[in-house]
Fold this sequence. Notes:
The complex is a heterodimer. Chain A is α/β, with parallel strands linked by helices.
Amino acid sequence: MTTVDNQPVLRVVDLSLDYLTRQGPVQAVQSVSFELGRGQSLGLVGESGCGKTSIANCLMRLLPDNGQLTAGQVVLEGQDLLLLSDEEMRHFRWRRMAMVFQAAMNALDPVYRVGQQIVEAIEAHGVEETVADARERSARLFRMVGLDPQLMDRYPHEFSGGMRQRAVIAMALACDPAVIIADEPTTALDVIVQDRILRELKAVQQELRMGMIYISHDIGVVAEVTDRIGVMYAGRLVELGDTADVFRAPMHPYTAALMSSFPSISGEKHELETLPGEPPNLANPPAGCPFHPRCAYATEECRQEFPPQAQRGSQWAACWHPMDGADVVMDMQDKLDIIG
Amino acid sequence: MSGPAGGDALVTVDGLTKRFPIAAGMFRKPTSFIHAVDDVSFRLGSGESLGLVGESGCGKTTVGKLLVKLQEPTEGSITYRFPAPSTGGHLAGSVDAANIKGRQLRVFRRQVQMIFQDPYESMNPRRAVYDTIAEPLLVQGIGDVQDRLDRVSEILNLVGLTPAGAFLFRRPHELSGGQRQRVAIARALVIGPSFVVADEPTSMLDVSSRTGIMSLMQELADRLGIAYLYITHDLAVARYMCHRIAVMYLGKIVEMAETEELLRNPLHPYTRALLSAVPSPDPMRRRDPPDILGDLSLPVDPPPRCRFYERCPMATDRCAADVHPPSEEKAPGHWVACYEA
C-alpha cells in the first residue's frame, strides 16, 4: 500500500446529481462524500445505473445537458471545482484531473496520428513550450505505458484494443494531473492484456503519486488495484473502507451479496448467490434504505428512514443492521436461502 | 480427441476447419486466409456442458456458428445423433450436419438452438415478448394460437418471468438486461432443443443478474436434459457452468479436460498464462504476471508449426521445426496439444 499525505488531494462533499427526464428528476447521485489522498487509489464498484460513472462525470464537469448538480462540493487541491466558470474549469480539466474512458476507440480521432493527438493536448494546455519538447514528452509517456515511441506516427486503426487503451492512458497523463479517473478502462480487453495494462497503470500512478479513482463492476480487478473501495447502490455510497477490510468483512449486506455472487477460479468452489429482485427505479426510489426491498435483514426502520453511517475503524456502511465478524458472507447466504 | 462415452455422443466434431478469405481486390482470387478454426475435434454427450474459452479472435464463436449451421465448414465434419423420440423419425441415427438440407433442416433447427451475447441487439425492439418467443413455434408450424399462448406462458414461468401474463406483451425496452436474456433463453428453449450453443450469454449482464441467468441455465439443463456448448472468455464463469473446458488459441484447441482438473492442473503454457491473468477477488493474494510473450496476432496463413510458438516461454527448436503438436491424453480425459507439456 502507498503512503498517503494527511491533506487529501480531492475531497467530495455531499455530491448530488439529478437527471431531468420526462418522468421527472432521476436521482443519479445522492449525498456522496469521500476523500482521496495523494498517491492513493479508490475503487468505486456497483452495478450499471448505480451512479458510478455519473460521479466521474460530475468530477470532470462533463455532464449532459439534462444533468443538474443539486448540492455538493468537489474540492481539488483546495479549489471547489463546482464554483468555477466553464472557462476556468477548462484550466483544471485534463491539467489537474484527467479521465480514461471505457471506449478507447472513441477517445482517439481516427484521422490523426496517435502521437500527434498527444502532442496537441500537451501544447493546448501549455505544458511544454516547443513542439520538440512536446514530442519528447509524448515519447516519454509512450514508454511509460509500455508502448514503443516509434508507434507515435501510426493511426488509431493500426493499434490493437490494448494499444489504444494504453495510448488513451498516455494522453490522460500528458499534463501530469494530480488525479486520474479510470472508468472501466480494461472492460473491453482480454485478460492477458488487461493484466498488463493494470500493472502499468498501477506502476505509473504510484511513480507519479497521483490520486486514482478506479471505476469498475469487476470486484476482482478493484481488489487488485485499489487501496480503498467504495460500494455504490442506487446513487448512494453505501460502504467505504480499506479494500482489504471490505473484502474480509463487508459491513453492508449489499456488499456481502455482491461478493458472494462473484465467481472465482481460485479456492473452493462456493455456491454463487443470486440477489433477489432488481435495482430500484431512481425516478421513483423506495423510501428509507434503497436496498431494503432486496435485503434479508430489512426491518421497519429500514423502510422508513435512510440509515446513518455505522463506523468500524476506517470503514463505514450506511446500514441500520451492519454485519460484523468474518462469517458475514456465510450468514448472508443462509438468510438468502431462507427467503430464497 | 475424445469426450464421454464414445459411440452415443450427441455431437461429434472431427477435424473442423473454417478459413475466411481475405479480400485481395475485385476480380482477384484471394490468396490469403484467416484460419479461424483449424482442425478442431471434440465430442459432447447428451446433457453435457462443454466450455469453449479463449481470447477474442481465437475462433470460439466461429465454432459455435458452424455447429448451428449458421456457417458451413471449409473442412471436417459435424455429426449429430439426436435422441430418437424427439425428432419423430426424421434425422434418425447419425446425421452429418453438412447433408442436412430442406425439410430436414427445419427438424434440425428444433434440436439445435443458439443464445447470443447481446440481449439488446438479438431482439426486435418492435415486437412483444410473446411474438419473439412464439416465432420458432410459428416457423415450425407447432400448435394453434391457444397452444402457442400456453407454451409461451409455460416457458416464461420456467425462465422465471412470472407472472407470465405481466410479461407477454411487453417490449424489449420495458425489460432489464437480465429479463431480456431470460426472454432470449425462452425463445431458444420453447421448441425443446437437445443442444444449445450459448455465446457469452452473461457477459453483458451485471453480477446480480448474471448469477440468476447462470443458475437458470443450469437448472434447465438438468431438468430438460439439454447439452450446452458454452462459449466464454471468462474462466470463472466456465468453472460454474461447464463439466469440461476446452481452451482455444488461434483456431486450435490446445487443452481440454474436466473443469476442476483444468483449473488445478493446467498443462499447456497458454492455459497457465490465461489462468494466472485472471484477477483475484482476494486482495491479500499476490498474483505473478502471466508467463507469455508478445501480443495476440491474427492467424493469417500461419506457418504449420505450433500456433503458440511465438508467445511461448518454453518453446524449443522442436516446436519451431515440427508441425502443430497433436493432441495427446496426458491423464484420463485430459488432452493437451504441446510437445513440452
